[in-house]
Amino acid sequence: MKTVLITGATAGIGLETARALAHHGFHVLLHGRTPDKARDAATKIPGQVTPVSGDLGDLSAVRDLAGKVKDLVPRLDVLINNAGVWNSHRELTPEGVELTFAVNHLAPFLLTGLLRDHLSPEGRIICVSSDSHRQVKGMNFADIGLSKNYHGLRSYAQSKLGNVLFCYEYDRRKEDRTSICAVQPGLVQTDIGLKGNTWLHRLAWRVRRQMSGHKTAAEGARTSIFLATVADTPPSGLYWDDMEPKRSFSSSYSEEEARRLWALSEKLTGFHYDFDGATADQDTSRGSSDEGAGSR
Ligand SMILES: NC(=O)c1ccc[n+]([C@@H]2O[C@H](COP(=O)([O-])OP(=O)(O)OC[C@H]3O[C@@H](n4cnc5c(N)ncnc54)[C@H](OP(=O)(O)O)[C@@H]3O)[C@@H](O)[C@H]2O)c1
Q1: Separation of 216 CA from ligand 1 center, angstroms?
Q2: Which atom of ligand 1 is nearest to the CA of 99?
């Protein structure tokens, strides 16, 4: 039986991805923010579904989650970094990092690194990004947490560009047969814009998610499900939409930008990827604040 970990699987696209993969016969490790949320979602899905939890805005919880996964299953076949947020107001994590950047980019960066040696030889890593990544020209390295000019959508777009840069750079560095893909699910009718948002942004999201071309959560999950289940390992290092690879925004192909983001992410997580050998988790060297993020 194949095993998949899906983050943020208590609602929206993640929940539908979990439902479909359980139906396909996977053992699903269904991740939620809290034990209760993960348990409640797991009970809605027939099949072998094991709830796991942890707040991805807290790097120590990401480490605990990886440890729990390693205790639960001997290996992972698929890791789906699906959880995501966008917040109207700027918030900081316990480590002092802007929350959207932390949940949407740093958490998958760290979780993937911690679980890399637990993936099967042809394991698949799927990172749910968004075409919103086209809305920023590049990463704002001078102020990665947007402390001077925060806007929720800009922060979200930057984090989603981070997902694509991460996938492409991971693909360039890896030397094994695993596959890493970034996914654009489309405009999907979920509650993502109703959670950490002002009434005006909630209203805007209610209108936007009805726009023509919108998808149900089950339709939004289709590309992730396809990449997890397709018989041949999907080609690595591509951006996928509607089960087809397509070009991402030009700046996502900048190798310099990707290397810079990688170095910053290692600094902020305290985790060093070593593609030649064992991974090294250097928790103590983690950058302590958002301000530290911009000083590179
Ligand atoms: N909806 C769209 O149109 C759209 C378009 C492009 C890309 N995406 C991407 O698709 C992915 C799924 O989004 P969705 O639309 O399905 O949104 P959603 O319904 O809000 O689901 C997001 C999931 O992530 C979880 N999550 C958020 N912050 C977390 C944290 N700090 N710790 C643990 N779990 C956390 C949520 O848990 P809680 O419910 O507890 O917050 C939820 O389970 C995201 O990466 C999003 O960026 C969505």
Answers
A1: 14
A2: 31
Please identify every residue annotated as catalytic: 156
CB of 134 shorter than 6 A to ligand 1: no
The string of pLDDT tens digits covering residues 2-50 is 999 999 999 999 999 999 999 999 999 999 999 999 999 999 999 999 9
Burial annotation 212-247 (CB, 10 A radius, 16+ → b, else e): eeebebebbbbbbbbbbbeeeebebbbbbbeeeeee
pTM of the full structure: 0.94
Reported confidence tier of residue 277, pLDDT bands at 50, 70, 90:
low
Rounded CA separation 112/103 (Å): 13
Longest dimension (CA), the chain: 49
- Span 3-294 CATH architecture: 3-Layer(aba) Sandwich (3.40)
Rounded to the nearest angstrom, the distance between the alpha carbon of 73 and the centre of ligand 1 is 24
